[in-house]
Amino acid sequence: MSDVRSITIIGAGLVGSLASIYLARRGYDVKVFEKRPDMRDKSIDGGRSINLALSNRGWWPLKEVGLEHKVNEMVIPMQGRMMHDTSGILTFQRYGQEGQAINSISRAGLNALLMTEAERAGAEIYFNCSIEHVDFERNVIHYTEGGNKKEHVTGILMGSDGAFSMVRKFMQVTDRFNYSQYYIEHGYKELTIPAGEDGRFRLEKNALHIWPRGNYMLIALPNQDASFTCTLFLPFEGERSFEQLATDADILDFFKQDFPDALEQMPALLEDFHHNPTSSLVTVKCYPWVKNKTLILGDASHAIVPFYGQGMNSGFEDCRVLNALLDAHKDNWERVLPEFQQLRKPDADAISDLALRNFIEMRDLVADENFLLRKKIEAKLQELYPGLWIPLYSMVTFQEELRYSEALRQGQRQQKIMDKVMEMPSIADRWQSLDFQAIVDELKD
Amino acid sequence: MSDVRSITIIGAGLVGSLASIYLARRGYDVKVFEKRPDMRDKSIDGGRSINLALSNRGWWPLKEVGLEHKVNEMVIPMQGRMMHDTSGILTFQRYGQEGQAINSISRAGLNALLMTEAERAGAEIYFNCSIEHVDFERNVIHYTEGGNKKEHVTGILMGSDGAFSMVRKFMQVTDRFNYSQYYIEHGYKELTIPAGEDGRFRLEKNALHIWPRGNYMLIALPNQDASFTCTLFLPFEGERSFEQLATDADILDFFKQDFPDALEQMPALLEDFHHNPTSSLVTVKCYPWVKNKTLILGDASHAIVPFYGQGMNSGFEDCRVLNALLDAHKDNWERVLPEFQQLRKPDADAISDLALRNFIEMRDLVADENFLLRKKIEAKLQELYPGLWIPLYSMVTFQEELRYSEALRQGQRQQKIMDKVMEMPSIADRWQSLDFQAIVDELKD
Predict the structure, then answer these.
(1) Which of A18, A21, A406, B43 has the lowest tally of Cβ within 10 angstroms?
(2) For residue A379, what are the contacts with CB-CB under 8 A and spacing of at least 6?
């Protein structure tokens, strides 16, 4: 397989486009098959465009392919969480240390940039091409383009076709393919806080806003047009659920009671609510990721829930790691493919589990006194011992050289230590006089 | 849905055939679509026919449909496990109490009987019909029969089409369908111990033979023609694995070392080994099992590994429970379908997990001194307090009125108590003088 020249990528989404930049630059003949029409032909609808949180793991590969400056112009840094309680009182909590931030960015805008860059690097993107079948033995893709059946032979095939990947679908029916898809009980609906009349942001611009309400929450991320894209995460069924929000009165009552300050900023709430779909949230795990000369990556092999803001970042990290392995093994795909999946699978599993857990933290714990105190103590530990104690959120979000699986492991050790600290009598009053050195020393055991 | 008249069942395997007997007897117009040709047209190959272990949960529904006597003529009772060590020393371990046994039966023979009985009850079985698509909204099945595309509308649709169910495959792509398929690292291969020259059984007839060897094992179940069907369970890869058994010498060496007494009884070992496939073992879990008017049951909704001998038994129990709910709700399917899945899902999950765990017990613990002692103490407890302490294996296998989920729960409580008992110093010497009353009393907490 070291004589591979042609690579076919299924899906020109964020991960497929970034992978095609790396691979075209390595000199491969890269073809990308995308099911949808070219998104760059349409004006991008700012209101409905989902925004994502780009953080260090995503930045690294973007820098490697030289897109740092262009992307920089597209982002709004968010230094922390702004929590809104039911009476409208705000609490700000930094994500990391001074200068550290996650970055709100439009999915559509970033995807368009990556596609254009991929083409500039020599990749060819074929739009309106739907995969019908994959033959893993002969490395043939059967697809339709405008209703016409076609086939295409390739050296290496990569499926970066998302959580509902067709490439994976054909892997799934091969022997000994482990697979799970698991939906959480919550759905989500996108809503909008438009720009203020004077073109200003109606809420603090450089923050991710959260209205944590126990079993559910509303969040808002800033857009460059001074609007916010809000997402309501709510169970599909049950006492407080989408099912219960049947009439306009139901919706308005719910927002009045739970999100009164957000409601004031949402003139088009009812319109948005009825117009936008209620979507589900899935976690996909599978293994192997490689079948002969086919590899799946990004959401296709590890779709996760959005609560750690790591879906795109982990997919971009896949691309960076793949490129590094190609460097290390001089493009010997026979070594790269198995090593890639062995290396990345534990990291994908780690961020998958972390993302599920972070939903509980976001919707619930962020409004909890004990949780806030724990964060304060951890921040103090980090301040005193910067290289030794790094809160889990920071390891995942800002320590791009640390593997997700290592971050999880270290986080678990720290959690055990902090659990003990939090059990100390009247910890709320006396936390400042804790023996911080002794706490950090426990990490050495 | 209380005016349902027509029911279509996909798959005329064991579960589909039993379900069609129940439903045809209730007066429904039952059609069964089976992918394969009619197995009754061919002579049934005794050697290659897998045999199954029929136990109480399977007997109950067979009795309900009046097949007790016919099936009784087809079985060989196995009262316990006969363990073979590497020097050929045998240890017998009863499965339950006097008169309790599990029953070796040929899958093909039982399936043929059930099909014939289903037709007698009025069900129509259409062979060589492959499902191409299921429309859950309109309750339409698209299928091919001898290359011709056809469609069929039905009142209720049931998928009993096995671990690789097509009906489930179409459910899987609907929103919010949770699904997992998980393969264990072991494969299996069927082998044969033929009848002795005088037509006698070469090993003890009324036992399930096990050659437990730590990470792998060989088992043998008796057939009515005095042969035994053996199954070798072995990892696909690794030190002792199918991968390592490449040549005739490899195979013979392996058997000589690990299964010398079995090897003596296997004149066609090499032929069997090369001819029979190495198959994989999958656990499938999913939810929901109902989509509009379609229900999946048996392996289609809960395929399990074979190590508790409960795959067929749990599928038959599905049929019995479904029939009982139809009785209880006067054939109101709108109530029966949701109640069936809510009731059965925890039981399917329980037996699924138990089956995975029992592999470890079979291949490993049965040869362990401590395990045998634990079994002895539990048997004593059952003897002294028959209604109060029932070993987990007995609850699962012989207590057909106890739900699997309850058996698992009760088993976990007993395990905790037994763990403590086994920790007592010199328990091996003094177990007969234990305070058994005190042990049983712990169950009351």
Answers:
(1) B43
(2) A94, A391
Please report how the helices B107-120 and B14-25 are oriented relative to each other, as an axis angle in degrees rounded to 10.
20
Q: Which residue of A has its CA nearest to B285?
A: A180
Q: What SS3 state is found at A64?
A: helix
What pLDDT, on a 0 to 100 scale, did the predictor assign at position B298? Answer: 98
Write out the two tokens for B171.
């459910």
First to last CA, chain A: 45
ipTM, 2 decimals? 0.90
**Residue A179 near chain B (CB below 8 Å):** yes
| Contact (CB, 8 A) for A158 and A34 | no
The answer, for A178 touching chain B at a CB cutoff of 8 Å, is yes
Contacts of B440 (CB under 8 A, 6+ apart): B381, B384, B385, B388, B389
Taking residues A133-152, what's their average pLDDT? 95
Q: Which of B173, B176, B236 sits opposite A280 (nearest CB)?
A: B176
Mean pLDDT of all residues in A183-204:
96
Spatial CA neighbour of B130 closest among B240, B37, B264: B37
The neighbouring-strand residues paired with B282 are B183
Q: Band of the pLDDT at A44, cuts 50, 70, 90?
A: very low
Residue A92 has pLDDT above 50, yes or no: yes
Helix (H, G, I), strand (E, B) or coil at A94: strand
Distance, in Å, from the CA atom of B114 to the CA atom of B116, rounded to the nearest integer, reads 5
Structure confidence by residue, pLDDT tens digits, B250-270:
999 999 999 999 999 999 999
Tens of pLDDT, residue by residue over B304-329, are: 999 999 999 999 999 999 999 999 99
Per-residue HEC secondary structure of chain B comes to CCCCCEEEEECCCHHHHHHHHHHHHCCCEEEEECCCCCHHHCCCCCCCCCEEEECHHHHHHHHHCCCHHHHHCCCEEECEEEEECCCCCEEEEECCCCCCCEEEEEHHHHHHHHHHHHHHCCCEEECCEEEEEEECCCCEEEEEECCEEEEEECCEEEECCCCCCHHHHHHHCCCCCEEEEEEEEEEEEEEEECCCCCCCCCCCCCEEEEEECCCCEEEEEECCCCCEEEEEEEECCCCCCHHHCCCHHHHHHHHHHHCHHHHHCCCCHHHHHHHCCCEEEEEEEEECCEECCEEECCHHHHCCCHHHCCHHHHHHHHHHHHHHHHHHCCCCHHHHHHHHHHHHHHHHHHHHHHHHHHHHHHHCHHHCHHHHHHHHHHHHHHHHCCCCCCCHHHHHHHCCCCCHHHHHHHHHHHHHHHHHHHCCCCHHHHHHHCCHHHHHHHHHC
Residues of B in contact with A164 (CB under 8 A): 173
Task: Give per-residue pLDDT as tens, B332-386.
Answer: 999 999 999 999 999 999 999 999 999 988 887 776 788 889 989 999 999 999 8
- Kindly list the residues from chain A whose CB atom is less than 8 angstroms away from the CB atom of residue B181: 172, 177-180
In angstroms, the CA A212 to CA B344 distance is 35
Closest CA–CA distance from residue A314 to any residue of chain B (Å): 23
What does R_g of chain B's alpha carbons equal in angstroms? 23
Q: How many other C-beta atoms lie within 10 A of the C-beta of residue B185? A: 14
Question: Which residues are within 8 A (CB) of A244 and not within 5 positions of it... i.e. 6 or more apart?
Answer: A238, A250, A254
Q: What is the predicted pLDDT for the residue at A217?
A: 96
Identify whether the C-beta of residue A111 lies closer than 8 Å to the C-beta of residue A14.
Answer: yes
Taking an 8 Å cut-off on Cβ atoms, the answer to whether A180 and B182 are in contact is yes
A415 — contact with chain B (CB < 8 Å)? Answer: no
Which pLDDT belongs to residue B44?
47
Q: Is the pLDDT of residue B62 over 60?
A: yes
User: In the structure, what pLDDT confidence band is assigned to residue B2 with cuts at 50, 70 and 90?
Assistant: low
pLDDT given at position B47: 37
